[in-house]
Write a structure and sequence with these properties.
Helix content is 16%, strand content 39%. With 102 residues, the chain is an alpha+beta fold.
Length: 102
């Protein structure tokens, strides 16, 4: 039989170890704000297209927009922007949208 004085110590140790064993995984479900935007190409490198997104007032690099031939500096591209609002996934994603016929 356990001595009454050892019971609190045993419970504290068990609960403390339980927190380490059942650690919350990194990532998991994330929530994004998705918007369509017109991005301005401000640079092109061998590995990415540098865009300015006026709606977010920030510049981003995008490998998904590096096409052959690459866009030129000053081009305006329609993109879908997914900005994280909750969770610990990729913070910002930019994908090209189809070109609309004029």
């Amino acid at each position: 039989m356990l001595k009454p004085a050892l019971l609190p110590l045993l419970l504290t140790t068990t609960l403390g170890l339980g927190g380490c064993i059942f650690e919350r995984p990194v990532g998991g479900s994330c929530t994004y704000l998705t918007l369509q935007a017109v991005a301005v190409v401000t640079g092109v490198t061998d590995s990415a297209v540098v865009l300015y997104l006026p709606e977010l007032e920030r510049s981003v690099d995008s490998r998904t927009l590096l096409t052959e031939p690459p866009p030129a500096v000053g081009d305006h591209l329609r993109v879908a922007v997914r900005q994280i609002t909750e969770g610990s996934c990729t913070p910002l994603m930019v994908q090209p949208l189809p070109v609309e016929d004029e």
